[in-house]
């Protein structure tokens, strides 16, 4: 993991350097634009960098083999993360994720992110502090929406810079196609998530679980792990067989990742997650956890769950009651088993995958980090 640790530092340096340039550009337009860079810096200093790591190791999975095609897959090694296209691509993924978080917090009306006020709350606080006219909350949401859009543009700028360092046109085109697919899928997955929160009551009970599972795949699983892997691999000219092998690893692990996220959204420690306890309950997230619990709870408990899920005024005591109902349904244990099953499927996909041994080792280590995390 030492190499992954060094990589995180390298990517942070790339993000800081990029924002330094943007800070000068924005300052030349107006000093009022400083919050766009300041808030972005704060958002991009946090997080676990999983997408960046999977992008890098997807790249190494292919590039280690490409450096010495005649060598056995279990002997090819490299010394350190290169300061090249994959670092910029990984930084672009982190920038894209930051944009998604800004927009997600507006949609969910979340007050905090990574232990700090969310971006729309920070803009609203600026409005109040300086005693401007109009509605501070509306200003906050509007400004944050623009901040998220700006981060999306910056992400594309970083990714374009990464592609400029790739000498093979076919690899550039393949990487761009993977990046475009990821952006499309996560936006549509986000819509499906919103749709489930609003339309679940009009759906047949038998549809709730498969629809929640589809949200996991397109909002998170493919975006968080599968796409970063294939983007990284495509940058090095990965073959169809190599990309398929990485997809076979990335999708089940991405599902496990989101299922862990769903458990943390209900039961996570606020001091660790940076979000209030039971935040997903107040937001009314119709997750796989909720769908599984509904199928196991008695009708009176289902009615209690339906009545309170999505109530933003839930007290801490009501949150604890809902948590107790979910645990009592057996849904938590079932989700834990599904997480482990998907983790095992991911590990199995690596066994005969035509990728480097170094990547196999690091990706196997990341399975544990992704599935047992506490934030």
Q: Keyphrases for this structure?
A:
Farnesyl Diphosphate Synthase, 2 domains, 375 residues, 1% strand, globular, two-stranded antiparallel sheet, mainly alpha
Give a brief rundown of this model.
This protein is 77% helix and 1% strand. The protein has 375 residues and is mainly α. It has two domains: 1-45 and 85-164, no CATH class; 169-375, Orthogonal Bundle (Farnesyl Diphosphate Synthase).
Describe the structure.
Helices cover 77% and strands 1% of the residues. The protein is mostly helical and 375 residues long. It has two domains: 1-45 and 85-164, no CATH class; 169-375, Farnesyl Diphosphate Synthase (Orthogonal Bundle). The chain has a two-stranded antiparallel ribbon. α3 packs antiparallel against α4 and α15 runs antiparallel to α16. The chain is globular and about 60 Å long. The model is unreliable at 69-82 (pLDDT under 50).
Helices and strands in order:
Elements: H1 2-29, H2 34-44, H3 50-67, H4 85-108, E1 112-113, E2 116-117, H5 119-129, H6 136-164, H7 169-199, H8 205-235, H9 240-267, H10 270-273, H11 279-283, H12 288-296, H13 299-308, H14 316-328, H15 331-351, H16 357-371
Antiparallel strand pairs: 1-2
Overall body shape: globular
Number of domains: 2
Q: How far apart, in Å, are the first and last alpha carbons?
A: 19 Å
Radius of gyration: 21 Å
Q: Share of helix among residues?
A: over 70%
Q: Could you name the CATH class of the largest domain? A: Mainly Alpha
The proportion of residues in beta strands is under 5%
Please provide the count of β strands: 2
Question: Average pLDDT, to the nearest integer?
Answer: 92
Low-confidence stretches: 69-82
What composes the largest sheet? 2 strands, antiparallel
CATH topology descriptor of the largest domain: Farnesyl Diphosphate Synthase
So how many helices?
16
What structural class do the secondary elements suggest? mainly alpha
Sketch the topology as an H/E string, one letter per element: HHHHEEHHHHHHHHHHHH
Q: Biggest sheet, strands in spatial order?
A: 1-2
């Amino acid at each position: 993991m030492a190499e992954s640790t060094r990589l995180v530092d390298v990517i942070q340096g790339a993000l800081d350097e990029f924002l330094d340039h943007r800070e000068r550009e924005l300052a030349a337009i107006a000093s009022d634009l400083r919050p766009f860079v300041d808030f972005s810096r704060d958002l991009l200093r946090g997080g676990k960098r999983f997408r960046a790591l999977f992008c890098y190791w997807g790249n190494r999975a292919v590039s280690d083999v490409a450096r010495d095609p005649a060598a056995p897959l279990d002997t090819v090694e490299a010394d350190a993360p290169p300061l090249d296209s994959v670092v910029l691509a990984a930084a672009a993924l982190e920038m894209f994720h930051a944009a998604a978080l800004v927009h997600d917090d507006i949609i969910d009306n979340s007050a905090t992110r990574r232990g700090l006020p969310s971006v729309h709350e920070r803009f609203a606080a600026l409005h109040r502090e300086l005693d401007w006219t109009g509605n501070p909350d509306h200003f906050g949401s509007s400004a944050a929406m623009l901040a998220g859009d700006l981060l999306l543009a910056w992400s594309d700028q970083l990714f374009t810079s990464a592609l400029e360092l790739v000498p093979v046109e076919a690899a550039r085109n393949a990487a761009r196609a993977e990046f475009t697919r990821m952006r499309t899928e996560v936006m549509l997955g986000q819509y499906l998530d919103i749709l489930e929160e609003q339309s679940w009551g009009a759906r047949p009970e038998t549809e709730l679980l498969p629809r929640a599972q589809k949200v996991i795949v397109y909002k998170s699983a493919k975006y968080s792990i599968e796409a970063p892997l294939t983007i990284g691999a495509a940058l090095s000219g990965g073959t169809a067989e190599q990309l398929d092998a990485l997809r076979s690893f990335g999708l089940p692990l991405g599902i496990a990742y989101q299922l862990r996220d769903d458990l943390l959204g209900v039961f996570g420690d606020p001091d660790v997650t940076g979000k209030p306890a039971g935040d997903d309950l107040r937001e009314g997230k119709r997750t796989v956890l909720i769908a599984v619990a509904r199928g196991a709870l008695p009708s009176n408990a289902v009615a209690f769950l339906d009545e309170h899920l999505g109530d933003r005024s839930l007290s801490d005591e009501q949150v604890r009651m809902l948590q107790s109902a979910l645990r009592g349904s057996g849904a938590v244990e079932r989700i834990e088993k599904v997480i482990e099953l998907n983790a095992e499927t991911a590990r199995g996909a690596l066994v005969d995958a035509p990728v480097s041994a170094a990547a196999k080792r690091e990706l196997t280590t990341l399975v544990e980090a992704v599935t047992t995390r506490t934030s």
